[in-house]
Design goal:
Layout: E1 5-10, H1 14-22, E2 28-34, E3 38-40, H2 45-49, E4 59-61, H3 62-65, E5 72-76, E6 79-83, E7 88-91, E8 96-98, E9 101-104, E10 108-110, H4 128-146, H5 151-157, E11 159-163, H6 167-183, E12 197-201, H7 213-225, E13 228-231, E14 234-240, E15 243-248, E16 251-256, E17 259-262, E18 266-268, H8 271-279, E19 289-290, E20 296-297, E21 300-305, E22 310-311, H9 324-342, E23 359-364, E24 367-372, E25 375-378, H10 380-393, H11 397-413
Parallel strand pairs: 1-2, 1-9, 2-5, 9-21, 11-12, 11-17, 12-13, 19-22
Antiparallel strand pairs: 3-4, 6-7, 7-8, 10-18, 14-15, 15-16, 20-21, 23-24, 24-25
Amino acid sequence: MSGPHRVLIVGGGFGGLYAAQALKRAAVDLTVIDRRNFHLFQPLLYQVATGALSPAEIASPLRVVLQKQANARVLMGDVRDVDPAAKLVILADETTYPYDTLIVATGSTHHYFGHDEWEEFAPGLKTVEDATEIRRRILTAFESAEREADPEKRAALLTFVVVGGGPTGVELAGALGEIANDTLRHDFRSIHTPETQIFLIEGAERVLPPYPPGLSAAAEKSLIELGVRTRTASRVTEIDGDGVTIQIGDRTERIATKTVLWAAGVRANRLGRVLNERTGAAIDKAGRVVVTPNLTVPGQPDIFVIGDLASFMAANGEQLPGVAPVAMQQGRFVARQVERRAKGESAVPDLFKYWDKGSMATIGRASAVAQMGNLHFSGLLAWLAWLFIHLMYLVEFENRLLVLIEWALNYVTHNRGARLITGDKRP
């Protein structure tokens, strides 16, 4: 092979971007392809959805992030297919790009467990468009309630249902509680926003199922203080334009609402199935590619799969979660493998080992839960830790500064400055 080692990264999320940055000094010809021209900090997307932040404050143009990296270029395109034999990726417009090493990090999307028709009534939260649509639905519900004379219709407009009691669901429900009880409290004349009803539906026995029971209990207590009603051990059986039906044991409950938010599940990007068809790689029930211990596709040492698209079992036999720290560490790990290959080294590849630094979820103002190894804590200290860590994970310094200023203003004024209703759709 003549010329530098050609590395092609598909996806500019946490996994793809961290792999690209880790290859900064490597003797490679690096190309990053993404459908969007920006990297999105998804852990703070719920704050865009609830009016606390604007989209630009949690997104960074990929070209800006990588502009000083001489060995890298960024292309905006939609990868539709992979040809492992010819070592090519094929875009939607049939343009092809060659590679010596391919890193696929295209993430995941919403999963409605066989009920894709629910998406119309219960949007998920994965993209900027999702966040602004959810924000529109939330704020429009209050606006519609302000001019609704019928008590039953007004009650339905002031009822919100969040499906899924994991971190995203808990954070959304907590933010809704703050909006109703604090942010909008004095904005309307015909409605009393603290009368808003917020339901959090979770299929497991407690909210935040992956967390220790004590932290789940602390999170639920904070949610209740914000007016959130939890429905655990509950299964959604129907969602339509007028409400949600849930099954709790032998009992069925119907919740009349015009606003349902989905935070219950994800499935891998469609490129997982493409790799399954092109390479024979196994995929799990969520569509993730089952990878080897060094994150390659079995039988395809030149193709790495990382982040939410990869199904990887940790040493304890548990599936690694689809969270940002996993993708970041996998991105850096793969970069080390690629750099060795570019140097012509033939050493046995390392095995990926995830260092679990802990997990956090924020419920509301000065309230969060945190797990760091054997250290479990909640309340103000956990909230401050959550703020600091999320600030540090933002890619650009300008974004960190903007978000810090916005959070400080929100904390002092109890205001959410990004309460704009955009789009022509109706709830």
